[in-house]
Every structure is written in structure tokens, then in C-alpha cells.
């Protein structure tokens, strides 16, 4: 991705980010939007911050939360501790969180993680070129998709959430138990 293309891409996300910031405060209930007809989730292969390869298809049989985020996105930063709390609640279940950082390098993501008060234990994947986000219907950052055990997109959420809220964990638990 060229520098000019990357800046244009960030500009579009920044506009949607403003909408996400507004929605964060305005949303009184913690909601996940069901995705009609559960399309197959686009497969991908990405490296995490430790250099380990992750392929979405390898997680078939588990419920997967795929979160697209960036270090420059305020709602993304706010929701990360709650994602860790959700991970702590469900990490021994058939569940995984894959947080995909979009368009940033390893060093930027590393600096972000060491600055957090809450250490993140779930995989942080790197979509440095923005190739994976282009395959998904992402409307802004953060956007999260919940993938069922069969690899279908079951739910989506645009904007920040408190991921350890009981409404989310109960929906995810129901998918795990299905």
C-alpha cells in the first residue's frame, strides 16, 4: 500500500471513527447485530506481534471474535481492557479473540501494548498493508465480528463496546454451547 493510499484509507476510517465515538456514548444497551444468513467468514493468514502465524480456518470448531482496531483509535483503546476481561472469562472455552491491528507496524503496536495498564493475553495480529480489512465489511474502527463454530459470521458490532458485559458473554456462551 502506498503512503498516499494509506493516508486516504485512514481518512475514510477517521470519518467513520467520529461516528463510532459518538455511538459509544449514545449506546445505552450493549448490542451485537445479527448477520442474516451467516455468510462464511473470509479466511486469512496473519502474523501476531510475536511472529506466530494465525489462520482463521485453524480455529474452526471455536467461536472467534475478530476485532479490527488501530492504536490511534480512541474507542479501540477504551475497549481493549474489557476484551481482556472477556478473554479471562472464556479462555478455557471453545473461544478465541483475534485482534487485528490495521495498517501499523510491529513497533507501534508493541509500544501501545506496554503502555496499557491491562496486559493483553489474546493474539494481536498485524494487517500491516490493510489487505485483510479490505476483505471484510468493516465500516469503521473498531469493528468486531463474532464467528460461529462453523466459520460463519454470526454477529457484528461497529464501534466500541464493553466486551465483558453480560449481554455479550451470554451471546458468545450460547454460540459456544451450540
Helix content: 25-40%
- Gyration radius, to the nearest Å? 15 Å
What gross morphology would you assign?
globular
Judged by helices, strands and strand pairing, the structural class is: alpha/beta
**Percentage beta strand:** 15-25%
CATH class: Alpha Beta
Strand tally is 8
* SSE order: HEEEEHEHEEEH
Order of strands in the sheet with the most strands? 1-8-7-4-5-6
Quote the average pLDDT. Answer: 87
Low-confidence stretches: 1-9, 11-29
> Ends: how far apart?
40 Å
CATH topology descriptor = Glutaredoxin
Q: Per CATH, which architecture?
A: 3-Layer(aba) Sandwich
Largest sheet: 6 strands, mixed
The CATH superfamily label reads Glutaredoxin
Number of helices: 4
Number of domains: 1
Question: How would you describe this protein?
Answer:
The structure is a single chain. By secondary structure, the protein is of the alpha/beta class. The protein has a single domain (3-177), classed as Glutaredoxin. 35% of the residues lie in helices and 21% in strands. It has helices at 3-26, 74-90, 106-115, 166-177; strands spanning 33-34, 45-47, 53-55, 63-69, 95-102, 124-127, 143-147, 153-158. The strands form two sheets. A six-stranded mixed beta sheet has the order 1-8-7-4-5-6. Strands 2-3 form a two-stranded antiparallel ribbon. The longest helix is centred in the N-terminal third of the chain and has 24 residues, at 3-26. It starts with a helix and ends with a helix.
Amino acid at each position: 500500500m502506498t503512503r498516499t493510499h494509506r493516508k486516504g484509507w485512514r481518512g475514510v476510517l477517521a470519518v467513520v471513527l467520529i461516528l463510532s465515538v459518538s455511538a459509544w456514548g449514545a449506546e445505552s444497551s450493549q448490542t451485537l447485530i445479527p448477520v442474516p444468513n451467516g455468510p462464511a467468514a473470509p479466511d486469512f493468514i496473519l502474523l501476531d506481534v510475536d511472529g506466530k502465524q494465525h489462520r482463521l480456518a485453524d480455529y474452526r470448531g471455536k467461536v472467534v471474535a475478530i476485532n479490527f482496531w488501530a492504536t490511534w483509535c480512541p474507542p479501540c483503546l477504551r475497549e481493549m481492557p474489557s476484551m481482556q476481561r472477556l478473554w479471562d472469562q472464556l479462555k478455557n472455552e471453545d473461544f478465541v479473540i483475534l485482534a487485528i491491528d490495521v495498517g501499523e507496524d510491529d513497533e507501534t503496536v508493541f509500544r501501545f501494548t506496554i503502555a496499557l495498564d491491562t496486559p493483553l493475553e489474546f493474539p494481536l495480529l498485524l494487517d500491516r498493508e490493510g489487505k485483510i480489512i479490505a476483505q471484510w465489511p468493516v465500516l469503521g474502527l473498531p469493528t468486531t465480528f463474532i464467528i460461529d463454530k462453523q466459520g460463519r459470521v454470526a454477529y457484528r458490532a461497529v464501534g466500541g463496546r464493553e466486551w465483558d458485559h453480560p449481554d455479550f458473554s451470554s451471546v458468545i456462551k450460547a454460540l459456544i454451547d451450540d
